Amino acid sequence: MNLKDTLFAAWQYPVPHHLLSRLMGKLTHCRNKWVKLTYMKLIIRRFGVNVAEAVEQDLNKYEHFNAFFTRALQPSARPIVAAANKLACPVDGRVSQMGFIEDGHIIQAKGHRYSLTTLLGGKDDWSKQFIDGEFATLYLSPKDYHRIHMPIDGELKEMRHIPGRLFSVNPKTVRTVPGLFARNERVVCFFDTSIGPVVMVLVGAIFVASIETVWQGVVSPPTHREIQSNRYGDGMLEVKLKKGEEMGRFNMGSTVIVLFGKERMKWLDGLGADSSVTMGQELGTML
């Protein structure tokens, strides 16, 4: 932690996170041609967005900035690792941290760890299944593709919408704010798979106008005071998704945390903190 990081994080504590995010949502859904095109071109220049990968490359055809931000890509742009025993990376981005879940805690950054149980929204059978397991925290920057895909075939068993703050999730804040991912608003998706339970945590952040899933649509906003939990299967709505299928999206950038049980998978050799990743590439091998 350094003074620059501390100052960057300090201004975020007193500001109204959710109000700012709602205002950003209105801006990113503005249909005024001048507003939406100005915003698109600014992001393309500032972050080097590769528009040539998109299905729709004509900026004028996007109804608003958010439609561009969550644009679909040509299938050839993100091939899904084909081998049945390989896990696919769920998003474009950068590995923030990855490794073992030790003593019920996950590494956030050097000098910072946070509780697995708190991240998942409470002490229950789900949390127990990931003790001594593996995790990867994947950060999406504004230039990245913002749809989230399945790393493995899975059946959804439960989804929790957990209220919280909306601190930025960029590296400066991650290095500074204790327990950030377990403090921010998040959507936790519990899947049953061929290698046991797998969890995908979609973490909200300041200026992330909303989080969506393919089975429910917009999950956030609204934000609730209490944890909202929905169960699936066993006579209720069934949600079964194949490896590489879209499962959700961020309306503006954020972070995905993927959890695996103990000795259920092995990470791809050479993959580690600060590695760049693309959706569909090999993430690891199922055991």
Molecular structure report:
The chain has 287 residues and is of the alpha+beta class. It folds into two domains: 3-69, no CATH class; 79-286, no CATH class. The chain has eight helices and 18 strands. The strands form four sheets. Strands 2, 5, 7, 8, 9, 12, 13, 15 and 17 form a nine-stranded antiparallel β-sheet that branches. A four-stranded antiparallel β-sheet has the order 6-14-10-11, with no helix packed on it. Strands 1-18-16 form a three-stranded antiparallel β-sheet, with no helix packed on it. The radius of gyration is 18 Å and the shape is globular. The mean pLDDT is 91.
Share in helix: 10-25%
C-alpha geometry = globular
Number of domains: 2
Strand elements, count: 18
Number of helices: 8
Percent strand equals 25-35%
Overall pLDDT level: 91
List descriptors:
2 domains, alpha+beta, 4-stranded antiparallel sheet, 9-stranded antiparallel sheet, 31% strand, single chain
Brief sketch in words of this structure:
The chain is of the alpha+beta class and 287 residues long. The protein has eight helices and 18 strands.
